[in-house]
Amino acid sequence: MSPLTQRLTPNSADLKHAADLLRQGALVSFPTETVYGLGADARQGEAVAGIYKAKGRPSFNPLIIHLADTAAAKNYVEWSDSAETLAQAFWPGPLTLVLPLRADHDLSPLVTAGLPTVAVRVPAHPTAQALLTHFTGPVAAPSANPSGRISPTTADHVIAGLEGRIAAVVDDGQCTVGLESTIIGFDNGTPVLLRAGGLPTEEIETVLGQSLAHPQNTKITAPGQLTSHYAPRGAVRLNATAAHDGELMLGFGKVSGILTLSADGDLTEAAANLFGHLHQLDAMGGAIAVAPIPMQGLGCAINDRLNRAAAPRG
Ligand code: TXA
Ligand code: MG
Question: Is 304 in the pocket of ligand 1 (CB under 6 A)?
């Protein structure tokens, strides 16, 4: 493999090339509506191992498989009525379902890190859709950042973190949602929120007609939810109404900063800007103070990511 990472465009010839690279066992980063993913053929153990190597990721952390549509997802998991309800309402889109792995699957055991379940997602981004359609198989893809660092929402973020460690990145501009997918698992049929994300939990609860359980009250967990994650280099202070000496202010609503997530207090705009703004402040160096973000809708996932960014580093 060339030590340089190829920057591809979303045209059909480049996407065919990207699908060929995946077939050859190479790593290809691609845009989804949430964040850029770091894709590998989920059936090839060495390719999947390459993801862990490129990211420097702890190997107990299982990966999401990406598929072009619900029919393809059903080849890998034991489907259920709740899965059908959620898929019909939200796929393609920023929702991941953790379901029991089918016995006849051909996934590398590295994808599930040995768990009896697998995380499946059908992304809505047209370029992700086109790549998955060209490739036809399951693509294992975590966010395309070095482990523990801020997730990428542009191809430049991917290159900055992984240049020379992956074969290619398909550059299709900025991700529109900007937060990773919401992850739902099931404990004896009870839906459980494993990770707050780009699909507000209120919408999921409305469609299911019941509230979501939380992992601490159930027997299941999302092993990837390490406390310190999404970390900029400098310290991060939350719920700040003004910057202290030497801090860079990340604003929201009436609290303005060097960069502001959304001057109008719009949580969708704030989510889309979150990781990009953290990347920019990180590049300026120094500590970061962040304005309060309300705990509703996408604000729950934004606060989850900010709490991890502010957590003591492991
Ligand atoms: O939006 C997204 O979900 C992005 C894009 C690229 O699709 N992907 C992403 O993947 O965020 P990653 O690897 O950064 O996060 C995957 C999360 C981890 O917290 C992991 O523990 C959880 O999914 N997960 C994967 N398989 C699981 C399983 N079988 N049971 C419980 N949690 C699982
Ligand atoms: Mg990640």
Answer: no
